[in-house]
Write a structure and sequence with these properties.
heterodimer, A: mainly alpha, 2 domains, 2 strands, B: alpha/beta, FAD/NAD(P)-binding domain, 8-stranded mixed β-sheet, 7-stranded antiparallel β-sheet, globular, binds flavin-adenine dinucleotide, binds iron/sulfur cluster
Chain lengths: 239, 588
């Protein structure tokens, strides 16, 4: 299976769509669905190093993403598919610094229906919360999160997601978990140009064909319960 | 001190669907028209290009085409007893920003709201008696009837290139259309979209249950099309990057490829982007608008643009905010139920259930924004006996699914862990094989669902944010519980391997996306004591101010809003051109 869809350049793609109404879907020949039991191929490694995470934070993040997305027959570990790198880049970029986030006060706690109400950018929340998480794990399990056993990690994450943990400084653990979980999903499933989902591994895992999507013909062929499968195409493949 | 520009004839605030329609319709008058749009310019060629536009993270998660809430947002609470807090991130709804407004990235589902919605109070009183309407439900007629709106629905559908099947042609019920719709003069401009396998299974189950399924009408063109203005629309590619994205195939009937470029062919129509209107200005009598104040957000310069006529077309929420900060019409007070601006804010209620079919693949990424197989037996069907369930309004039911974009779309059966290998296996197993049935339900006005100015929080210009007090009330609870039962019954009849529990939404949260179907706040009607606008959506107080959009809706149906939003905009344009410009003043 090769990932480069050679010949599926932008020009050719555009030529097939639009007003003329002729689908270019034929350029995307269906392939057999990936065998879910085959061992997951090792992707090219993410670039080493972080732009936001300090060493102790990096240990936490890598441990968290590897626990949530473990290496198994479906994918390599979360870190190996770039999820930690993805989160790092998101936090050092505009999103982490509070793009599209209203940050003026006052900041009363609010109800669950009122959504996020902390005075923190995502980057500031991660910084405070990772420190708080390790402190909590040290108190509860005698070691930082990354050194905890799988069972301890599981307990911690379950309690964090269930709103049972308040982190140092009064930070609601669930607010941090909500953001972390969303970012893990983004790092796993977003287009690989953002640093995660390396080699489109998560798209292959589920059979999402990616960004080449001229389906005017496919809808006629695949409307009887049969599966449409194609090598996924990412933004980089078409650029 | 604001820079004062030479006066123009007409200022339009906002260049989305309705601003585009008004600019296009009034352009041929030759009058000097300036459209002020607070967001960026957009060219479909560049902004909607592939692969750039097919970026789920950027456009669907980070909401790149929508309102930037770091600059301006709304405060929210469920009840007057709570302190409203700012919507710090977009969630429940996604107001558009930039040329095309929300129309640039809408789904396209386009409905005709029937006569019994437009004359809602009269119709329910007539059928169920006056006492059927609860005292705190400020139900009122719109002041326009179904037959009056029919030609305008028609115009909007032909301009946007709607694909669908008529259910009632001049009184003749049509096979495979929606039999409950009001009579229409002619067919849709395009045949309906194709159905996917989920739609077929739903169709059969619904038929077996005695319901009336049909393919939902939408602005995703089933075939290449040229609209009455000569604008070309391409064929929909079922690309699955529709809602929240611009369309690379030019197949989505959006203002960007229809009314806006046509409007801008008139040399007398000028579009100024990055022009954020902060206020509509009034003269010393307070009875006439003199123009608007805006900020060029590229330079920070404050500018006064005098105009004879001001059309507010800034989307429902911004419309009401502009009226409140400018003092156009008396603000609504829930304690006394007096005043008009801000009253009858509504949204949409609903219920949903997910089904899993072990042996089937539905290819969720082969999808369009608006497609779906729907039924209206418990909504537009006037013969559906509401008394048995105690509600007003109803819910339409759809099996659809606009995409398979995996950051957000990863259905797994209940009880699946949230992470780990077991979670991954479930995602991989069910990604292709899930179907969701949803019910979209009406929201009736309520005394304490309203909009006003927040006492605490401000936007980038120091103006008070608008405060939204809203929750689903008793009527909505009745509707969604009933709808949950219906979708559960259809779900079972579809014979899935597994099925979740049909879940009604009982309380409104700002967090998950629900719909950008906000309505009310500057409602139209026949009485200045109960409505901010008259039947032509002209301000009762300032006759040279007209207001477009769903802010004029006195209640919300289960339907998506843009059919009547478009129709009312065309009707307003006719009234301005044929009547107002000849004899400026109140049209009623
Ligand atoms: C994701 C999504 C999906 C949708 N799907 C559907 C659907 O399937 N069916 C349906 O019926 N409807 C749908 N809608 C709703 C539909 O898009 C709106 O009903 C429609 O666009 C409203 O038209 P409008 O002209 O009132 O507002 P818009 O089209 O939003 O235009 C308003 C414009 O005003 C500008 N503006 C706002 N404030 C100011 C100011 N102070 N100064 C200057 N400019 C300003 C905005 O930037 C915007 O460009 C959807 C909306 C969204 C966001
Ligand atoms: S689904 Fe169709 S209308 Fe929507 S963006 Fe894709 S091609 Fe355009």
């Amino acid at each position: 299976m090769t990932d480069k869809n050679s010949g599926l350049g932008r020009r050719q793609f555009l030529g097939g769509a639009g007003v003329a109404g002729v689908a270019a879907a034929a350029t995307l020949a269906p392939v057999a669905p990936a065998n879910a039991q085959a061992p997951a191929a090792a992707p090219s490694p993410p670039p080493a190093g972080y732009t936001f995470f300090q060493p102790q934070e990096a240990l936490f993040i890598e441990a968290a993403v590897d626990h949530m997305v473990p290496k198994d027959e479906l994918t390599p570990s979360g870190t190996d598919i770039g999820i930690a790198t993805y989160i790092d880049r998101a936090l050092s970029g505009g999103w982490g610094k509070g793009d599209r986030l209203y940050l003026r006060g006052p900041w009363p706690r609010g109800t669950a229906n009122q959504g996020y109400q902390l005075p923190l950018t995502p980057a500031a929340l991660y910084r405070a919360a990772i420190g708080g998480a390790n402190e909590h794990c040290r108190k509860t399990f005698g070691q930082t999160f990354d050194r905890c056993s799988a069972a301890q990690k599981e307990t911690f994450l379950q309690e964090l997601s269930g709103g049972k943990i308040t982190l140092a400084g009064g930070l609601p653990g669930r607010a941090f978990f909500g953001m972390l979980y969303q970012n893990v999903m983004e790092g796993m499933f977003a287009d690989p140009i953002y640093g995660g989902n390396r080699d489109k591994i998560a798209w292959k895992m589920i059979g999402f064909p990616g960004v080449a999507a001229n389906n005017a013909e496919n809808i006629k062929k695949y409307n009887d319960g049969r599966r449409f499968a194609a090598n996924p195409v990412g933004i980089a493949d078409m650029s | 001190m604001a820079t004062k520009l030479p006066p123009v004839d007409i200022v339009i605030i906002g260049m989305g669907w309705t601003g585009g329609i008004l600019a296009k319709e009034l352009g041929p008058t030759g009058l000097k028209i300036v459209v002020l749009e607070r967001g960026a310019p957009r060219s479909p060629q560049n902004d909607f290009a592939v692969p750039y536009i097919r970026d789920e993270l950027r456009f669907a998660q980070r909401n790149d085409m929508m309102m930037d809430v770091s600059q301006d947002t709304y405060t929210i609470r469920n009840n007057p007893s709570e302190t409203a807090l700012p919507m710090r991130r977009l969630g429940s709804f996604l107001p558009g920003e930039g040329v095309g407004g929300a129309g640039a990235h809408w789904n396209g589902v386009t409905w005709r709201w029937p006569d019994h919605e437009l004359r809602i109070r009269s119709k329910y009183e007539e059928r169920y008696g006056k006492n059927y309407i609860p005292a705190d439900m400020q139900l009122q007629d719109w002041g326009v009837s179904g037959p009056e709106l029919e030609p305008y629905y028609d115009r909007f559908e032909y301009v946007a290139g709607i694909s669908g099947k008529a259910g009632n042609l001049k009184g003749q019920i049509q096979k495979e259309g929606n039999p409950f719709e009001d009579p229409r003069a002619r067919e849709y401009p395009l045949p309906p979209l194709l159905q996917n396998h989920a739609g077929q299974i739903f169709w059969k189950a619904a038929k077996d249950l005695g319901y009336h399924p049909f393919i939902r009408p939408t602005a995703n063109a089933s075939q290449p099309y040229t609209n009455p203005d000569g604008m070309k629309i391409g064929q929909c590619q079922y690309c699955g990057f529709c809602e929240r994205f611009g369309c690379e195939a030019n197949a989505k009937g959006s203002p960007n490829i229809t009314v806006i470029p046509v409007a801008l062919r008139n040399p007398n129509v000028e579009l100024r982007t990055y022009a954020w209107v902060t206020k509509v200005l009034k003269d010393s009598t307070g009875k006439k608008a003199t123009g608007v104040l805006y900020v060029n957000v590229l330079t920070g310069e404050e500018i006064e643009q005098p105009a004879d006529l001001v059309i507010i077309a800034a989307y429902q929420l911004s419309n009401v905010h502009l009226m409140l900060v400018s003092g156009i019409g008396k603000p609504y007070d829930p304690a006394t139920q007096s005043g008009v601006v801000g009253k009858n804010y509504a949204y949409q209620a609903g219920a949903g259930v997910t089904l899993f079919f072990e042996d089937k693949s539905f290819n969720p990424f082969i999808a369009t924004g608006g497609w779906g197989t729907s039924l209206d037996d418990f909504h537009t069907n006037w013969n559906f006996d509401r008394a048995a369930h105690g509600g007003i309004g109803g819910a339409y039911i759809t099996v659809g699914g606009s995409n398979g974009r995996p950051i957000a779309y990863r259905p797994v059966p209940g009880g699946t862990p949230q992470w780990g290998s077991e979670w991954k296996r479930a995602v991989a197993k069910w990604y292709h094989s899930a179907v969701s049935i949803s019910a979209s339900a009406s929201v009736m006005p309520n005394r304490v669902n309203y909009l006003d100015l927040d006492p605490t929080y401000t936007n980038r210009f120091g103006q008070p944010l608008m405060r939204m007090t809203f929750d689903f009330r008793e009527n909505e609870h009745k509707l969604v519980k009933h709808a949950a039962g219906i979708i559960g019954g259809i779900g079972k009849a579809m014979k899935p391997t597994r099925m979740g529990t049909p879940t009604p939404r009982l309380s409104w949260s700002v967090v998950p996306y629900q719909s950008t179907h906000n309505t009310g706040g500057a409602v139209m009607g026949i009485d200045p004591n109960t409505s901010a606008l008259n039947q032509h959506c002209q301000s009762w107080d300032l006759s040279n101010v007209f207001v477009t959009g769903a802010s004029a809706f006195p209640h919300n149906s289960g339907y998506n809003p843009t059919g009547p939003v478009g129709a009312l905009a065309y009707r307003m344009a006719d009234a301005i051109r044929e009547k107002y410009l000849k004899r400026p003043g109140l049209l009623i």
